[in-house]
Design brief:
Layout (H helix, E strand, L loop, with lengths): L1 H20 L3 E9 L13 E3 L2 H6 L10 H9 L3 E7 L2 E9 L2 E4 L4 E4 L4 E8 L9 H15 L4 E6 L4 H10 L2 E11 L2 E7 L6 E6 L14 H11 L1
Parallel strand pairs: 7-8
Antiparallel strand pairs: 1-8, 1-9, 2-3, 3-4, 4-7, 5-6, 9-10, 10-11
């Protein structure tokens, strides 16, 4: 009974800690250099930028991340929604944002330069998966922004989502860093790690939302300098 009681107390303390502190949250940041992409033929009229009128007019809105009302709010705020259609049916959704991007899951704010676009919330309804819909949509979105002068696209992927990592690598994205966020009472703790595994930066912040952690290992010049200081 004593051993059972110890385990029960340990479990209760762990649950209290998780409630106060929270579990670590990690995302892999990947970059696609748009000018290096090979030109390809257009995917055709089945790919296009969605308007608010379309969202309101669809009999059903089956984006897996947002409700119809949330999607309309995002469009009004300046986010852009892209869709891939087949025979009039929406088979894949994806969003693009520029400027200031809030990532609530990491309590992080991205302040992006004008030539960088953030792609997120790629979603394919279950009945259309395993048909390369997501690959076609993301390639089309990347070329769309390449033609408009953007130089880079970035995404943030759950490291445990192997299919998503594989998809983005297939599109051409390369991992440039990983961010792990841990919440403590009144503090936000961030660990940014380079893919090589030997370069790491840690930051602890109170009552502020960081804006430049997304670019910690963005520049190859910074990488080389950081490497020389750690060897």
């Amino acid at each position: 009974m004593g051993r059972v009681r110890e385990l029960g107390i340990a479990g209760s303390l762990a649950r209290i800690k998780d409630k106060l502190v929270g579990q670590p949250r990690t995302l892999v940041f990947m970059r696609l250099t748009l000018p290096r992409m090979e030109d390809h033929s257009s995917v055709g009229a089945d790919f296009h930028l969605v308007t608010s009128q379309e969202v309101m007019g669809w009999s059903a809105y089956d984006d897996g991340y947002f409700t119809r009302e949330q999607a309309l709010c995002r469009l009004e705020s300046g986010c852009q929604l892209y869709v891939l259609q087949r025979q009039g049916r929406n088979v894949c959704f994806g969003w693009a944002e520029r400027g200031t991007v809030d990532m609530r899951w990491l309590n992080l704010r991205l302040c992006l330069p004008d030539d960088v676009v953030y792609l997120s919330c790629l979603y394919t309804p279950p009945q259309f998966r395993r048909q390369s819909c997501a690959f076609r949509l993301w390639r089309a979105v990347a070329h769309h922004w390449k033609e408009r002068g953007a130089t880079c696209a970035i995404v943030a992927v759950n490291p445990q989502n192997a299919p998503s990592l594989w998809l983005h690598e297939r599109v051409g994205f390369k991992t440039y860093q990983t961010i792990t966020y841990r919440r403590w009472p009144g503090l936000g703790c961030y660990t940014i790690q380079h893919p090589c595994g030997r370069l790491r930066r840690r930051y602890t912040m109170a009552c502020t939302v960081p804006t430049d952690l997304w670019s910690t290992f963005w520049s190859s010049v910074i990488l080389e300098a950081a490497w020389l200081t750690t060897v």
